[in-house]
Structure formats: structure tokens, C-alpha cells
Model the fold of this input.
Amino acid sequence: MQFGADICQDFCQATAREWLETNGLGGYASSTICCANTRRYHGLLVASLNPPVERYVLLAKLEEDLIVNGERFHLSTNQYRFKVHPEGLRYITRFELAPFPIWTFQAGGVTLEKSIFMPHGEDSLAVSYQIMSAPVGANIRLEVRPLLAFRYFHSLTQVNDQIDKSVELAGSVVRVHPYRGLPQLAFHHNAGEFVPDADWYYRFEYIEELRRGLDAYEDLFNCGYFLFDLSPPELRPGSRAFIFATLHDYELINEDGISQLEQMKRARHTTLAEMTDTRDALARKLAESADQFIVKRRDGKRSVIAGYHWFGDWGRDSFISLPGLTLATRRYDIAYQLLSSFARFFDQGMIPNRFPDEGGAPEYNNVDGTLWYFNAAFLYAQTTLDYAFIEQELYQRLAESIQWHIKGTRYNIKVDPTDGLLQSGAEGVQLTWMDARIGDTVVTQRQGKAVEVNALWHNALSVMSHFAMKLKRSADFEKYDNLALRARRSFNRLFWNPQKKCLYDVIDGDRRDDSIRPNQIFAISLPFDPLPKAKQRAVMRVVEERLLTPYGLRTLDPADPNYRGRMEGDAWARDTAYHQGTVWPWLLGHYITAYLKAFNRSSRARKVALSLIEPFRKHLAEAGLNSISEVFDGSPPHHPRGCIAQAWSVAELLRVIVGELNL
Done:
């Protein structure tokens, strides 16, 4: 993927496109293609101090000046109040992801290439500069000033007296330790010298934070600058100037070491793309992007970052995403590790909803995450035939989980003995995936028996029946089969809305919520679906007519008085729209599966499914590069919103391309 000067030198278009580099620990580097930070979450070294959470923006950005024969060219781009300064984007002639960010600058007759990458598995960043062409005999210098934030990634830094401005110089290593309680940062380099020059840069403006109604101004600290002599023959042909920022205790890192790390990074990307059994260009790019969400916790166990930049690791998101992130990419070992890792956290029959980003005990405030775990375990076993793992590590935990759900667990999650369906609800607690809350107010009230929860409950009972059959546990097979049959009959009797020819969204006593929402598609898309074919097709017609958009499904019918077509503005405005009309791409994966099932995988159904993935080929170059946004506006033109890269958005599209459409 690459962009020319027409995009790179247009501030609005350049700042709309964001790149992301990750390190497999929850840390990342990210900014826009013109290097102007527009979010508090942007930074060149955002490290996870308790992987994959407790993330801190350490190195915010680099200010770079190219000096050719005494003439200075400011290569950086920043936004301040009512002003873009400097306007270094004027010198960018190309940006590409190949596979990590590479810029080409042209200034003073010199062509300079800059690249950035993060080695996998460590909190480090490599930045390289190389002269590609220059006038004969030109005197070329490069000044690079690191701007430091050293703050929690949800916060902002302001000028303060607590900072330690000292710099430790030791040969080709510069070390800074601005604040007690945070790690020391080392800069390995091959510059001619580092010049200490402590100063503050004031009032950077982050436009995306302004749009979100949040604090948007930050001061950044500069400890000095690196001075590189890039004049031939000072820099031999093919060699590069570099800065290697790291939290690791490297004794020495040199140009050869940078090259080796770069080769490893490139090889990793190639391997990830080739592991996925597809020739489809979109799927291959998504397979590489899928790796960004798979992280290793401090204890060495695997987890999934739900989205970048601000989500942590969530249970529900992990197991909705598992089939696409790991099975479609044939990374079966990762799928095994995710299932095994979360199995340790079963408590009262539930897996955690999330692990707080600031650390601490896991939170269990969800009704569906555990049921998605059942589904992921089934798909893993079906794909790998690893029923030994199911028998030895999971079966007993899953059986206990079913019992907890029957007798009752947290938040009034309990099977209704009158119909065998699962109910839940506690005042002020959001338990389904439609979980927006403002203060103590849950935006989308779904207490009672939610339609997708009961589709998942029926699916979980059927999964246990399947496992019991495979493991030759006849008594268990009969028990779970009877429970699933009862749930299926009750589901069809109670959830069918004869007036609208689709499913009620929630049943709560005598109340029937007939809001048209996408949650009903799971009664078709899950492996064990409770609906007969005629009802499946009726549901699909309603969902297609009222909810389908080019980027996924709306969360509410536009004709509903509670519909919100734009997810923009302050936190209140965004949260009230989050599940009240906003489009979610991850739902499109289940819509495609449901459509293919409902219409018997006919050639026409396949053509429809193929057409639905086409808009994402263009989207990969529009927001978070090579990734899929978290959400889109419900109303045209469906502007991308939320996180620039969302695990289940990428995973579900990848799953259907590889697993359903076999591209």
C-alpha cells in the first residue's frame, strides 16, 4: 500500500490515514501518514508495562530537520491552535506500508527515506534514515529531536517541575529517566553526536480528541538532539543513520543489528500472509493485520487486544475473534493457547469480560462471553480434531459452566425453569455486547432474555451434546441433547414476532421488545441454529431491508425513534449512538454466514456474499491502514468511527473470506 504526494501533502487527507505498528505485547507505534499526531494515543513508543495492559506513551514523536548546504528544511508536521507548523508534509513524496511505514522526502535536491518498525516481543522502536540521492558534493546534516511524554496513554502531559531533565551519555547510547516510577528509556544511535538541549514544546493540538469532546492539548519535553552527518563519504553508500529506542538492556545495538531485526520483521509478515490458505489480496492483508491483536501476557499466556488504540484484552472479543484470527490463518497453536489461557479464569461458570487496562482483578460483567467461548472451543475442535484437549482441559470446566448457568451465577444470570431459556439482568450493569453506559445509566436496556444470548445458549448446549458424543459420554449426551431441544422449542415459541416476521430482541416477562436489531442473525449464523428454514429466510429479508449497509449491520432500524445516525461529538453523544444505529462491521461476517445458510449456499447467495466484502478493499486505505474500523455511522456516507483497528472487525471478515467463500 502506498500514497503519493497528492495525498501525503494534503493535510486533511494525510491525517485521516493512520498507520499502526505493534509488538505482540500490547505496545505499539502509531500516527498519521504525515507524522502529525492527532490523538493522545499516538506515539512512536507506547509501551505496555504490564503486558498487555498499563500502556504508557513514552516517545511521542521525533522532530526532524534536514540541512542541505546550510539551508534548513523542517520535515515534521504538527498541529497547534489554528496553525499547522512546521509543514514538513510538503516534502513527503511517498508513504508506503512495506510492510512497516516508509516515507520518502525530497528537499534541497536530496531524497531521504525514513522507516519505522517495532521488533516483535519487545518494547523497542527502530527508526532509520537513508539518502537515496543527493547533489554531488552536497553537505547534508540531519537533526532529530525526540519529544517525550512519559504518561499513561489515556492522559496528557503538561509542563511540570517534577521531570528529571538530566541525560546520561555513554558512547553511542543516550539514556533518559524523566519520572520516578516509570522506566528508563535508552536511545542507541550512530549519530556523530548527541547535543543535550532540554526544553519544552508547548500546546500540541490533537484534533481527534477535540472531535471527541475531550482535552486535546499537550506539552512535550525535548532532552536534546541527535546530529547526523549524511554527506558522502561520511555515510557510505547503502548505509543508514539510525535511532533505536528501547526499554531493554541492550549492551550495544549497531546497524547490522538493526538490519537483522528488520529482516526478522519482514520474514514474520511474509510467513503470516502465506500461512493463510488464500490468494485473495484482501484476506492476505487482513491475515497480517490479525497478528496485531494477538498478544502475550506477562505470564506468557496468550490474549487478544480488542482494538487499537484504547481497548485492552476482553473475553467476549477474544472468542468472537478467535475463529478469524487463528483458525482462518491456520495458527492453531494460538487458538489452543487462547482457550487454555482463559480456562484458568473460569469463576462461577464464567470467563472474564475484560482485564482492566490499569491492572487489577478481571471483571466478569457479561452474559455472553462465556457462551462465545463454547462456540470457539467447538470450532477449534471441529477444525483441528483435537478432542484430546477438549477432554483433558476443557470438558469438565464447560460442564460446570452449564451447571452454574442453570442454577444461577452473577448478575441474575440463570435459566428460567419454565422454558429452559437463559435470563439475566442487574440494575446499572450492561451484560450483553450492546454495553454502552453513561454514568450509571445503561443506554440499551436489555434485561431479561436477549435473543442472541439464547441463540448462544442453545448453541452451547448443542456443543456440549456434540462433545459428549465424541467423548462417548452417553448419559451426558442425552442430558445436553434434551436441554438443547427444550431451549430450541421455547426459542421458536417465544421469540417469533408474527407481525414483523422476525425475532423479538428481548423478552422480559410479558414485555416483548420488537426493536429491529441485528442480534437475531445469530439464531441463524451459529453452528447449531434453532430456527427452521422458513423463519431464517424471513429474518434475513427484514435484516437486509432495515439494517444492511455497505460496511456492516446497523444496530437499530432507522425508522425507530431511538435511532442515531451519527456517532460523533462528546462522550454522551457517542455513547447514545453506539448501539442505537451505529454500523458494526463484525456483524457482517455473521450476516454472510446466515445468508449463505438460509439460502442453501446457492450461486446467487454466493454472489451476494462476494459483493458484501468489496467495500472493504477500498476501506483498507481510508482510515486505519490495512485494518478495519470498529464502527461506521449508521447513516450515509457511513464515516468510519471508533478504533482504527478492531479485532472482531478484521477477524469476521477474514473468517468468511477464507472459511465461507474459500477465496
Q: What stands out?
A: The chain has a mean pLDDT of 96. The radius of gyration is 26 Å. The chain has two domains: 2-269, 276-660. Residues 276-660 form a domain with the Glycosyltransferase fold (CATH 1.50.10.10).
